[in-house]
Amino acid sequence: MIDPILVWNIRGVGTSKGRLKTLISKWRPKIVALLEHFQNIDVAKRLGRGLRFDNFISNEAEGGKIWIFGDSIIEARLVRMGRQFISLKVGEGAEIFLLTIIYAKFTMVEPRSLWDALSFQTLDSEPCIFVGDFNIIQNDSERRRGGLIEMNSKGNMFSWCNGQYGLAHSWARLDHALMNASFLSIFSNAICSYLPRSTSDHAPMMIELKKDPCPYGPSPFHFQQMWVDHHNFLDCVRQAWSIRVDGTAIQKLVIKLKQTKVALQAWNRRVFRYTLERISTLENQSEELELQSQLNWDANLDNDLQMDNADLAMSPHQEEICLRQMAKIKWATEGDQNTKFFHVCLALKRSKRVLSMRSNDAVFESPESIYQGAVDYFSSFLQGEPTSEHPNLDGLIDPVISDEDNASLLCAPSLEEVYTALLSIPVNSAPGPDGFGSGFYKSCWEVVKNDLWKVMLEFFDSKSLPKFFTASFLVLIPKVDSPTGFDKFRPISLCSIPQVVINKIHQMMSSFFWGELNGKDKKKWVAWKHMGKPVAEGSIGVRLLHEVQTALHMRFA
Q1: Number of domains in the chain
Q2: Model-level pTM?
Q3: CA angle, corner 139, sides to 136 and 141, nearest 5?
Q4: Alpha helix stretches (DSSP H) within 156-196
Q5: Burial of 495 (0-12, 13-18, 19+ CB in 10 A)
Q6: CB-CB contact of 439 with 428 (8 Å)
C-alpha cells in the first residue's frame, strides 16, 4: 500500500504553514504537492528541510506554481513537466503508477493546451492519476478524454469557497482526483478525502490508496462457467453424481450437489489453480517439452506438447469467461478478448463497496458492524407480523376455466417443461447458497435431469419444501449511488436453481385459457398482467385482481 498523498492549493505558504505542519503530522504523507505557494525556491527548500522531506521538484522554470516534496523512502522519478503540471513515476513492483499534479489556468485556451499535453499519458495502458486544481471542468467530456474516471471521495461536497457572506457566498468543486481504468484496476479502493478548509479557500486533498477491507467472512462456493469447456469436466461430475443415496428426491439432490461441490473444488485446485499461475505453468511446461522434443523426438513427448499447447490456447478464453461471470456483464460477442474490459468492470464494482453506514444516529465503519447493523435493521420489519388482512374475493369471481383445462393446470410438469423453465434462467445469474447456477444444470443436463425432475414431481405432489431446501441469500441492492443509510437499499433473495425452476413453472401455469369460439382457440394463453393492459394496446383493459383487492380493502377498512 502506498502512503497518503497530500495535494493542496495552499494560496500562500506564509498563512498556511501551521495548518500544513498539522496535516503532515496527522496523516504522515510521503508526497506533498503545494499549489499557488506565492514564494521563491529558497523558501521552498527551507520548508522542505523543516518538514523533513529529502526531495523537492518545482516547475517554476516553466513558469508554473507547483511544489512537490517527497520522502526518500518512496520511489518517485520525474517524467515530464510543463507550465500547468508535473508528472512523476511513483511506487515500486506491481504498484507503479504515473502521478500528475495539476494547477490549471482559468482561461479558456490554456486548459485545452493542458489536456493536449497530457493526452500521451491517458492513451497509454499504464496506471495514471491526475490530482490538483483544475480551476474548471466545463463538462464530462473533458473528464472522459483518455477514459478518465472521478475517484471516490468523502468529506465536503465542494472544494472551494470564495469566502464571501450573504448572497455573494458561493462554492464550487475545482479540485479533482481523476484516474484511468488501469489505475482503478490496481487501486480499486482509492479514495480522495476533502479535508476542512481554514487558511486557504481550497480544501486540502488527501489521496489514500487503501487495502481492500473485503471480503468479510468465508467465501462461499461458486460454480465457475469456465470449467464447462474442459474435456474432463463432465467425467468429474458424472463420477461425483453416481453415488448411491437414500431418502426423498429433495434429500438425494442436496446430497449429490454437496458431493459434486467437493469433487469440483478438488478438481479445480488440481487442474486450474489460479488462472494466471496456471498460464505461467503451462508456458514453462510447453517450453521444456519443446526443448526435449528438439533434442530427442518422441511420440509421447509430442502428444504431451500438443495437449499443453491446446490447454494454453484455451486458458485466456477461460479467464475471460471467469471474469465475465464475476463482473455479471451480458456480453453479446463471443470469442473476443475482453479481459481488460471485465477487469475494469470488476474494479468499478469493488470501488462502490460500502465502507461506512449510518442508521438511527449510529455510524458503522467496520465490515462486522455494517453487517450486524444491516441484520438488525431489516429484521425489524421483515420478521414483523402483518397489520391487516385483505378480504377474500374468491366468491365474487365466476369460474371461466373448464374442468379439462383445470386438470391440465394441476398436473405435474413434464421433463420438457422443467427444461424450458431452466433455459429461461440466464447462465450468469447469481446462484443461491449451494453455489450452483443455471450454467451447471444446463451443461450437465443429461447427468442431473432425472434427479431435478423428481424434485419437481415431489414438490407438486406434496405442495411443500423442507426448510433446509428453501434457504436463500439476502442481498441488499442500493437504490441510489453512494448510499449512506440502510433505508437506501432494497433486499432481494437469491434462491437455489431448483427453487427458481419451480417459480418459473408457476409463472407458466399462472396463465389461463381465455374462452373458445366454435371449437377454436379464441385467445392464446395470457397472464393477468397482460389482460390488465389498455384496450389501445390490444388487451381488454381489466383491473388486476390484486389492485382490485387492495382498493376494496382501502375503501372498506
Answers
A1: 3
A2: 0.58
A3: 120
A4: 181-186
A5: buried
A6: yes
Q: What pLDDT, on the 0 to 100 scale, is given for residue 423?
A: 92
9 strand-pairing partners: 35
Concatenated DSSP letters for 457-492?
Answer: HHHHHH----GGGS--EEEEEESSSS--BGGGEEEE
Measured CA to CA, the distance from residue 417 to residue 226 in angstroms comes to 27
Between CA 327 and CA 329 the distance in angstroms is 5
Examine residue 214 and state whether it is found in any structural domain, yes or no.
Answer: no
Task: Clarify whether residues 204 and 230 are in a common domain.
Answer: no
The predicted structure's pLDDT at residue 334: 43
Same domain for 155 and 27: yes
372 and 512 housed in the same domain: yes
Read off the CATH number of the domain in which 152 is found. Answer: 3.60.10.10
d(CA 450, CA 241): 12
The C-alpha atoms of residue 326 and residue 346 are separated, in whole angstroms, by: 7
User: Angle at CA 81, nearest 5°, toward 76 and 82?
Assistant: 160
Along the chain (557 residues), what's the average pLDDT of each consecutive run of 10 residues? 85 89 90 92 91 92 93 84 92 86 76 65 72 73 59 86 81 89 82 89 90 63 85 93 92 94 89 58 63 68 67 56 49 45 56 74 83 86 68 69 72 90 88 91 95 93 86 86 84 90 79 52 52 58 58 52
Residue 521 phi, psi (nearest 5): -65, 125
Cis previous bond, 215, omega within 30: yes
Handedness of CA 320, 326, 327, 332 (dihedral sign): positive
